[in-house]
Amino acid sequence: MDVVYSFDQDSMMFQRVFEYGVTSAGITPSTKNVIGGNAAVFKTYGDHPYKMLVKEKAAMISSITAETKKLYGSKNLTPMTKMGAFSLLTEALRKALEYKGKKEKDYNGDYEALLKVLDKEMPLFINCSTKADMDAAEMALKDFDIDVVFTGAFGIHKDVTKILGRRAGIVLGDLTCAMSYKNSIVDFFAIKRLVEEDMDIAISSCGDNAASGKESLLWNAILYYKNGLDSEDVLKMITSIPSKILGVDNRIGSVEIGKDADLSIWSANPIETYAARAEAVYINGENILNSRRVASCW
Fold first, then answer.
1. Cα–Cα distance, 127 to 208 (Å, whole number)
2. In the chain, fewer beta carbons within 10 Å around the N or the C end?
3. Residue 76: phi, psi to the nearest 5?
């Protein structure tokens, strides 16, 4: 699946995530499939997907979490186990590699999509939860020279630096659900150490499920600050680092001459105080909070 063809700009207008300072978002297919398809980056305001599009084919999405096993196992279909999920993932990459090596070949859209991963034109995002998931993924993919990004990554640990030469980063999953067991396996001290070692770690507002609302990215950022990370580091984890991981840092993610004029201006640091209010949010140089907005059909 290519998420560009399923992106609903009206839903984005309904959510109004820009009201909490989010000017762009990486949107992915569902993480309930072993290989879900292509992710893309969009601005959070506009009246047409292609006008909002920053980059298509930003990453290939895959998943080896229990959610994948739960979905297909209940239907008595592969993958019914994590071993089955890894088998499907590595088999697809191997077949794509074989397809690449054939001088004369019949066109195969699935393998063509995976060639962009094998040629390092895009990273492979692997949705995972535990330390065991990440270690197993590293072992399963050791024969493939590809850029790997762990998403979710609730069980991230200090020894993950051993894969520094084989990954493009980490995207941490949503921690705002107080009832999730995943919150209990997060090692904030290890994350702090890895951030201090300049590992590319981003914060997201989703995981196995859809994002919970326009506030959730900021709420996740606040949780990391409350658990010992420096607010300036947290700021990078929701701005410049995700833009780098998604390959759009030439346009967004920091304030520099030549980049898109996307800025959020707050009355105070929203990571450090709940009293902060968004006073202006510029997307492509337009203050969306004060301008005549594109109306939602809702």
1. 8
2. C
3. 60, 40
For residue 82, count CB atoms less than 10 angstroms from its CB and return exposed for 0-12, middle for 13-18, buried for 19 or more.
middle
Mean pLDDT is highest, among 62-71, 147-156, 227-236, for: 227-236
Joined together, the tokens standing for residue 29 give: 């297919």
Is the four-CA dihedral 118, 121, 127, 131 of positive or negative sign?
positive
Give the neighbor-by-neighbor strand order of the sheet with 24-27: 24-27, 35-43, 53-63, 124-128, 148-152, 167-172, 201-203
Which residues, 6 or more positions from 192, have their beta carbon under 8 angstroms from its beta carbon?
228, 229
* Spatial CB neighbours of 169, under 8 Å, sequence gap ≥ 6: 123, 149, 199, 200, 201, 202, 241, 244, 245
Indicate the helix (H) or strand (E) that contains 181. Answer: none
Superfamily of domain 3-287: Metal-dependent hydrolases (3.20.20.140)
Residue given tokens 């200090």 in the structure block: 158
* Domain locations in the chain as residue ranges: 3-287
In tens, the pLDDT along 247-297 reads 999 999 999 999 999 999 999 999 999 999 999 999 999 999 987 666 655
Phi, then psi, of 56 in degrees rounded to 5: -95, 165
Q: Report the alpha-carbon distance of residue 291 to residue 298 in Å, rounded.
A: 19
Q: Which of 160, 159, 161, 156 is nearest to 171 (CA)?
A: 156
Strand-pair partners of 41: 26, 55
CA atoms of 41 and 54, how far apart (whole Å) = 5
